[in-house]
Amino acid sequence: MTGVPAGTVAARLAELGITLPRVAAPVAAYVPAVRSGRYVHTSGQLPFVDGALLATGKVGDGEGLVAPADAAGLARVCALNALAAVHDVVGNLDDVVRVVKVVGFVASDPSFTGQPGVVNGASTVLGEIFGEAGVHARSAVGVAVLPLDAPVEVELVVELAD
User: Fold this and answer.
1) What would you measure as the largest C-alpha separation in the chain, in angstroms?
2) Which residue positions in the chain have pLDDT lower than 70?
3) Parallel, antiparallel or unpaired: strands 52-53 and 137-143
4) 3-state class of 134 per DSSP?
5) 78 with 153: CB under 8 angstroms?
6) Closest of 74, 67, 149 to residue 112, by C-alpha
7) Is the distance from CB of 40 to CB of 90 less than 8 angstroms?
8) How far apart are CA 154 and CA 162, in angstroms?
9) Fold classification of 33-160 (topology level)
10) Beta-bridge partner residues of 101
11) Where are the domains of the chain?
C-alpha cells in the first residue's frame, strides 16, 4: 500500500471545507496520540470545539436525550479531533496510508441500540477525507457514561508510510 500523493489530504480537506482543529488538551494524565513504529494510536477524543464540549448527556430517542443524528455529528467532530492529534504527531496527513481501526463509544440511554449509526459520523468523514484508505475496522460500543458526560468518544489507529 502506498501513501497518497503529496498535498492530497490537505487539498481534500479544503475541498470538503474542513479545517483541522487545534489538538484538544488532555483532560487527565495522557497524551492525545502516540506513534509506535508505523502506527499512530490516538487517545479517545471528545467532541470539543475551541476547548468547549459541544453537548453532554445520553444518546437516544426521547426528550432530554441527545438525538442519534446529532450524536453522529459529534462523532464526526471527535474523528476530526483525532486526526488533529495524528497530524500533531506526524506533521503531515499525507503520510497516512490507511485508517486501520476506529473505536467509538456512545453514552447510551438504556433502550438505545443505534450505536453503529452514531459512529458512522466518524467513519463517513474518514472515508470522505482518505477515500479507500479511510475504510477501516471498527467497534461501536454503548456505555453508561463518558468523561465530562460527553455523548460520544472516538479513537483511531492509523498506519503511516515507511
Assistant:
1) 50
2) 1-7
3) unpaired
4) helix
5) yes
6) 67
7) yes
8) 26
9) 60s Ribosomal Protein L30; Chain: A; (3.30.1330)
10) 137, 157
11) 33-160
pTM confidence score = 0.94
The number of C-alpha atoms within 13 Å of 105 and in the hemisphere containing its C-beta is 18
pLDDT (0 to 100) of residue 12 = 93
Do residues 78 and 140 touch, judged by C-beta distance below 8 A? Answer: no
Closest CA to 82 of 100, 58, 68: 100
Could you tell me the CA-to-CA distances from 115 to 108, 140, 153 in Å, in that order? 8, 6, 12
Q: Which residues lie below 8 Å from residue 45, measured CB to CB, with a gap of 6+?
A: 24, 32, 78, 79, 81, 82, 85, 153, 154, 155
Grid-cell match 494524565, residue found: 29
Strand segments, DSSP code E, in the chain are 33-36, 39-42, 48-49, 52-53, 96-107, 137-143, 152-160
**Gyration radius (Cα) of the chain, Å:** 15
Q: Give the neighbor-by-neighbor strand order of the sheet with 137-143.
A: 33-36, 39-42, 152-160, 96-107, 137-143
pLDDT given at position 2:
39
| Side chain identity at residue 95, one-letter code | D
pLDDT given for residue 1 in this prediction: 34
pLDDT of the residue at 62: 93
- Residue bearing cell 432530554: 64
